[in-house]
Amino acid sequence: MHCDCGAVEVSMTGAPKVHAYCHCEDCRNLLQVPFHSVLAWDPEKVRITRGENFTRSFQHPQKKMTRVFCTQCGEVLYNTNAMEWKLVSQLLVRKTHNDQLPESYQPSAHFFYDRRILDIEDGLPKK
Ligand SMILES: [Zn+2]
Ligand SMILES: [Zn+2]
Description:
Number of strands: 9
Mean pLDDT: 97
Helix content: 10-25%
Strand content: 25-35%
Oligomer: single chain
Radius of gyration: 14 Å
Bound molecules: zinc ion
Order of helices and strands: EEHEEEEEEHE
Number of domains: 1
Largest sheet: 7 strands, mixed
CATH architecture: Beta Complex
CATH class: Mainly Beta
Distance between the termini: 29 Å
Structural class: mainly beta
Low-confidence stretches: none
């Protein structure tokens, strides 16, 4: 998986521990999205395999979260949360895999649905 300009490449090992949609306000605040299409791994399972010198990690001023992005094109490659998980967007995976999402990455649920700003009716369980 790589950023828009191709300077940075990121590889994930194994299936994600969480593959879901997150409707919490922290994800919205960090990423400016109505909800986050989350693929979450333990930190050691997501590695920058090319162009680490073109990455920067921005620590959110209040929350224990970071955005790791490419300094050449600005694309966010992943973010981290308070548990230090690394969260990759399903949309970035799709974009770099011919608009396909592997079976083990398919969203299984909506998390923090009670905190949503957008209603979703897709039949997935809501937690
Ligand atoms: Zn880039
Ligand atoms: Zn969230």
